[in-house]
Amino acid sequence: MEYRELGKTGKLVSIIGLGLEHVDFKPYAQVEETIDAALEYGVNLLDVFMPGTEVREYTAKALKGRREKVMIQGHFGSIDVNKTYGISRDIPTVKKYFEEMLRLFGYIDFGMLFLIDTEDEYNKVFDSPFIDYVQQMKQKGDIHHIGFSSHNPEIAMKIINTGVAEMMMFSINPAFDMLPFDEFVFDHQDDLGRELFRGLDPKRAELYKLCIKNQVGITVMKTYGGGKLLSPEHSPYSMPMTHSQCIHYALTRPAVASVLPGCKTAKEVHETMKYLTASETDKDYTRIISETPNDFKGSCVYCSHCQPCPSGIDIAAVNKYLDIARLDRDNLPPNLRSHYQALDGEECIGCKGCEVRCPFGVSIVECIAEAKELFGGNKNITHKES
Q: Is the full-model pTM beyond 0.85?
């Protein structure tokens, strides 16, 4: 298992975590088996948004003696309504459900502001005692970090700009990324691959860059689009994607630390973890992107088809930091500069083998030179003409 730092939380999380929503209403033996399988692979991040008492108790029981081995995303405002989840911003109700979770798990690593997708929900959280309660829980040590979940890039950016959140859970997959953010991909299956998909939605691209700039780490929900991207009948593309393609796409987005697919059995955990040993060919998602109109021409999508570099340069990483730096060239965040400086590599020799391999026609050699200029030079990554 690989581990990544989750934004400014400083916590190292497994690149594949486990969403537990699909073990809701399942017997204890199945919950235990699923969690055991995940932990055997080195999973250390669990999402427990489900408000039902039984599934939370089963999860806590399965983790007995192993609580310190995992980090838990627990959500403020997820409540039980007729045995399904609902959303509440009423403080007594929020306290009831969250403090029950604390009783079971002792503490929550990432206290999540649950599903803020609209201006109204934003106001109910940030213009009310709700956010005060969450911050008090952090001050007491009952939660270690504040995060939030959302599907709306505009609202997510507004939350990030408050400075309250250290991380977020966001829905990421190629279909969601390439459709205008106010559309829902599976409402438009007859149009897909024609005019609706015009490349990466600018709002989502802006969100990813803001996350890097503000050191807000991302954990991913909807990695498979609710399973539809895996289905021949429901995929919006000419053929379904694989688990590994979906996971790899999400993990190559800026600021993403972990994907949290929902698995309801140990078998599904094993299927998901095939990603860890998948070949680069098996993980390749560029076929999907190439089905869309050529709005990606000249833009790096961080797919790493440009590799290998004979000088050992991590080209996708250089381009990620460069894209973020271009947002405000005169005010580069210190953390962005330090991330760039930490990259391993020797001199760019200008061979342009990377450009021959790039599916999207990126002028990579020019980008490396621009990055060096923007970041003030780098002892590892430099450029010289061939």
A: no
